[in-house]
Design goal:
This protein is 18% helix and 44% strand. It is of the alpha/beta class. The radius of gyration is 18 Å and the shape is globular.
């Protein structure tokens, strides 16, 4: 996926989850943060960031914060909307025989990101975006998420009901050689991911090429289940 009207700036501070103070062309702007995760290892004072200009000129915040350049030069996409769009572009690679791809579909009281059909399977796919890199390993989540664990247990129920159930972790960066649940931050999610695997839920992880104005699925990376 590509963005329009992207500008760069310098990160100053983040007073709460939803806004950040960014220096753009020598002027301090209050910008909307497109991700409620902590990202303390990324949003450091002076870091180069990338922003998309809002289409609505009447909006209080004129820019959306979509990416940050790490100290090693790698750009990390931090737009929480992007993983689903990336997954939408990647579905045909993951499921090459797909004949129906439908976003935001319900199973009983649960709503999954995608419903897919091919000649032999009915598939539910849930998507999670990952921005945390710990010594070359992508990890999720970077903050406790009851909702994330809930989705995994719902996928288990879909599997028991006869569907093919899958979760895709979209690693919003390059430079990670594997993916694992972040046990130290959220042991309940890690437990849920292990139980999902044991109950036949398929777990995929794909890294991304990230540029100043785009993010694109690239290569599958292995998923690890050891703590």
């Amino acid at each position: 996926m590509k963005y329009e009207n992207v500008v760069s700036g310098k990160f100053i501070s983040r007073p709460n989850r939803f806004i950040a103070h960014i220096e753009i062309d020598g002027k301090e702007e209050i910008c909307h943060v497109m991700n409620t995760g902590r990202m303390k290892e990324l949003l450091l004072p002076g870091a180069e960031v990338f922003l998309c200009k809002a289409k609505n000129p009447e909006r209080k915040t004129k820019f959306d914060l979509i990416g940050v350049r790490r100290s090693d030069g790698e750009i990390i996409n931090i737009d929480s909307i992007a993983p689903n769009k990336v997954a939408g572009e990647y579905v045909k690679t993951l499921f090459p025989e797909a004949k129906l791809i439908k976003p935001e579909t319900f199973f009983e009281k649960s709503r999954f990101d995608f419903y897919i059909e091919d000649d032999s399977d009915r598939i539910f796919l849930e998507v999670k975006g990952v921005t945390l890199n710990v010594e070359g390993q992508a990890r999720f989540p970077d903050a406790p998420t009851e909702r994330g664990a809930k989705h995994l247990y719902e996928l288990i129920e879909a599997k028991k009901a006869g569907f093919r159930a899958c979760v895709l972790f979209v690693i919003a960066m390059k430079g990670c050689n594997s993916f694992a649940a972040n046990f130290a931050t959220d042991p309940k999610f890690a437990k849920a991911l292990f139980e999902a695997k044991e109950n036949g839920v398929e777990i995929f992880a794909v890294d991304c090429k990230v540029t100043e104005n785009g993010i694109f699925a690239d290569e599958r990376i292995p998923v690890c289940f050891s703590e």
